[in-house]
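> call design_seq(struct)
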């Protein structure tokens, strides 16, 4: 196989990897905040449910979760597996998994805020929702940005787990090409692409973090 053809296939795999990455971030970041609210709820039933959800998502491998979402409907309800369901399976698997991690990151940030800020906001006449949205949340986001950056970089590498669903992302393309060509060149190129992708994510997140650190 010509090098240009190999590179073209790897680029197509990279596009799929980027799609998994961005879709997961767009869905899991706000979902994680909702899960965080549930985890911190004063209702013991709601709190216990979300605590259990986070425990399961963090306590079982992402690869296993993807396979459950993919094969579960077939084995449980005999629903035929289609390409549409394959796409929905990885969206659910990645988003729900990372939402659990982001929820705990948010919770740590919220609980680190001094109680005095809530009391001061109450004296100034802010409602609970106004206090959270205008005072607490902006500070929490600034505090948790380093942790979110770490999770985002981890996500870049975790996208390779989509190969379990036969999705032709970067790793699966490299694996197929390496088996066909019987050499390590596809793996080497894939490793370089992953590295550059991680550097780019780290650079962008660092710029965002600096923009948010306007009091330094």
């Amino acid at each position: 196989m010509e090098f240009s053809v190999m590179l073209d296939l790897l680029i197509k795999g990279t596009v799929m990897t980027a799609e998994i990455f961005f879709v997961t971030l767009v869905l899991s970041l706000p979902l994680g905040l909702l899960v965080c609210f549930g985890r911190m709820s004063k209702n013991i039933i709601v709190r216990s449910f979300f605590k259990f959800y986070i425990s399961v998502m963090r306590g079982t491998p992402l690869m296993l979760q993807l396979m459950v979402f993919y094969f579960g409907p077939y084995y449980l309800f005999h629903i035929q597996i289609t390409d549409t369901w394959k796409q929905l399976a990885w969206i659910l698997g990645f988003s729900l998994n990372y939402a659990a991690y982001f929820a705990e990151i948010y919770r740590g940030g919220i609980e680190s805020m001094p109680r005095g800020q809530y009391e001061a906001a109450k004296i100034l006449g802010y409602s609970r929702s106004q206090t959270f949205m205008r005072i607490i949340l902006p500070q929490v986001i600034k505090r948790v940005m380093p942790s979110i950056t770490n999770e985002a970089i981890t996500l870049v590498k975790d996208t390779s787990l989509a190969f379990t669903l036969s999705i032709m992302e970067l790793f699966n393309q490299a694996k197929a090409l390496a088996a066909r060509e019987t050499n390590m060149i596809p793996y080497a190129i894939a490793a370089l692409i992953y590295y550059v992708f991680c550097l780019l994510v780290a650079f962008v997140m660092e710029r965002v973090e600096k923009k948010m650190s306007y009091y330094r």
